[in-house]
């Protein structure tokens, strides 16, 4: 009998749902204060997870939740990049 590996779950900061890491996009703020999208999920820094869903990305932008999470101002480019990743995944 093969032991099933435990799937790592993370919480979406918008919906507060626990989901497997593959279903989420990670946004990272590193020590230098740079904020960027981390498609690999392995970069160093403080991470926040968003569901791969356009409505979630839009809500994150409206509520500016990433600004609160990282205590810094987030460029709209980050949200654009998130949107492109989500749209790319929905093909």
Can you offer a commentary on this structure?
The chain is α+β, with helices and mostly antiparallel strands. It has a single domain, classed as YlxR-like (Hypothetical Cytosolic Protein, Chain: A), CATH 3.30.1230.10. Helix content is 33%, strand content 24%. The chain is built from 3 helices and 5 strands. It has helices at 54-63, 65-70, 76-89, and strands at 9-11, 18-20, 24-29, 35-38, 46-51. The strands form 2 sheets. The chain has a 3-stranded antiparallel sheet with strand order 4-3-5. A hairpin with a 5-residue loop joins strand 3 and strand 4. The protein is globular. 19% of the residues are buried.
Q: Descriptors for this entry?
A:
91 residues; alpha+beta; Hypothetical Cytosolic Protein, Chain: A; 3-stranded antiparallel beta sheet
Short description:
33% of the residues lie in helices and 24% in strands. The protein is α+β, with helices and mostly antiparallel strands and 91 residues long.
């Amino acid at each position: 009998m093969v032991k099933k590996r435990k799937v790592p779950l993370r919480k979406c900061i918008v919906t507060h749902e626990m989901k497997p890491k593959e279903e989420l996009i990670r946004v990272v703020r590193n020590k230098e204060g740079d904020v960027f999208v981390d498609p690999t999920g392995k970069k160093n820094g403080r991470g926040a997870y968003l569901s791969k869903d356009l409505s979630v990305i839009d809500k994150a932008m409206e509520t500016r939740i990433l600004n609160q999470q990282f205590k810094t101002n987030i460029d709209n480019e980050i949200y654009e990049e998130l949107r492109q990743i989500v749209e790319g995944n929905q093909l």
